[in-house]
Amino acid sequence: MSYLVTIIAFIIVFGVLVTVHEYGHMFFAKRAGIMCPEFAIGMGPKILSFRKNETLYTIRLLPVGGYVRMAGDGLEEPPVQPGMHVKIKLNKNDEITHIILDDHHKFQQIEAIEVKKCDFKEGLFIEGITAYDEERHHFNIADKAFFVENGSLVQIAPKHRQFTYKKPYQKFLALIAGPLFNFLLTLVLFIGLAYYQGTPTNGIADVAKDSPAEKAGLHSGDKIVKVGDYKVTDQKSLRSATDKIKENATHVTVKRDGKEKTFKITPKKETEQLTKTKKETHYRLGIQAETEHTAFKPILEGFERTIIAGKLIFTAIVSLIASIFTGHFSFDMLNGPVGIYHQVDSVVKTGIFNLINFTALLSVNLGLMNLLPIPALDGGRILFVIYEAIFRKPLNKKAETVMLAIGAVFVLIIMILVTWNDIQRYFL
């Protein structure tokens, strides 16, 4: 039963993260007028699919990411290549309205053609030898034209609907929107948790057994107003004060039954493993803070926690990159889908709120990792757009295609190595 719960939790976490990320791309792409032929969650063979307007929505087998296919983004391969035999339907202007790739159709007055040359991005034409006269002809593709395959119509994007021909700022927004939506998801989750759980105050809800607070005589219901010379108004200022005091004995002033009392206390040192490469040391009194429910504090709490999470993940990524050059890099520092599944299995046992918190951290991680300047990732493609904006011309198409291919192969190899390493760590 626990395995089933973990699987369901993993599917939900993975699905939410990838859907939000890819929806961000599609949202801004469509606002810019870019055609999006496919919105995919997962990779590999299709499990489920449905079409709405011009976009095919698919769920694919392998939980290793997702994508939004934008027309003319340099990553798509047209289904028609020179040497193929296809059928075409023409309008009254001898422009192609349908390119028929199978026999499952009911079109009449169609022409068979052997394709010799074609361009579906810039020139938008097919040139080939027609069966009826065995002569070579040039046919332009109509502004509204379709590939017909397996009974489905897939629209061919005209130039004004392609990513390539949009302005740099429109391309930039379409690319950065994925990470941006991940950051927004983190913010929403943290705000939601703060509204439900309340925001911590300087009041004491509970005191841990054998903690410095218990030994000093503090108990639930007390409100801490001063630590040493530092004034305390909330949980944040309390943490700051104890971190400054460290393990030195100090006086803590609390309000109890309307009166102030002072106790001598020595904070306890605690080291927390934040990431595989980063530890953080704090000094605690051993109390659980009271919470309060207000209208606006949860919003501020959400923003604060999002910024803290962003700094934490960013620092971990920088440390990871630095470890490559210092010789301390290990694949144990990375987690693929298998590693994330293992983490979900651990977190889900501690409760739904910890799982939501974990999802928020993963969302920040996904957003920042996608901003790395690797050509196959959003960050690398954003660099191409910045180049175009600065030099007033796009990067050479052949060079861009080669770099995208190299980047994709690099990411694929890393994913395979990380996944195999995770399998060895957790299951072998």
Automatic annotation (TrEMBL):
Its main location: membrane. The keyword Zinc applies. Gene3D superfamilies: 2.30.42.10. It is found in: Cell membrane; Membrane. Its EC number is 3.4.24.-. SMART domains: PDZ. The chain crosses the membrane at residues 172-196, 312-331, 351-372, 402-420. It is a single-pass membrane protein; Multi-pass membrane protein. PROSITE patterns: PDZ. InterPro entries: PDZ, PDZ_6, PDZ_sf, Pept_M50_Zn, Peptidase_M50. SUPFAM superfamilies: PDZ domain-like. One of its GO terms (biological process) is proteolysis. Its cofactor is Zn(2+). Keywords: Hydrolase, Membrane, Metal-binding, Metalloprotease, Protease, Transmembrane, Transmembrane helix, Zinc. It is an enzyme of class 3 (hydrolase). Residues 191-254 form the PDZ domain. GO terms for molecular function: metal ion binding; metalloendopeptidase activity. The keyword Zinc applies. One of its GO terms (cellular component) is membrane. NCBIfam families: RIP metalloprotease RseP. Belongs to the peptidase M50B family. This is Zinc metalloprotease. It comes from Staphylococcus argensis. The lineage of its organism: Bacteria, Bacillati, Bacillota, Bacilli, Bacillales.
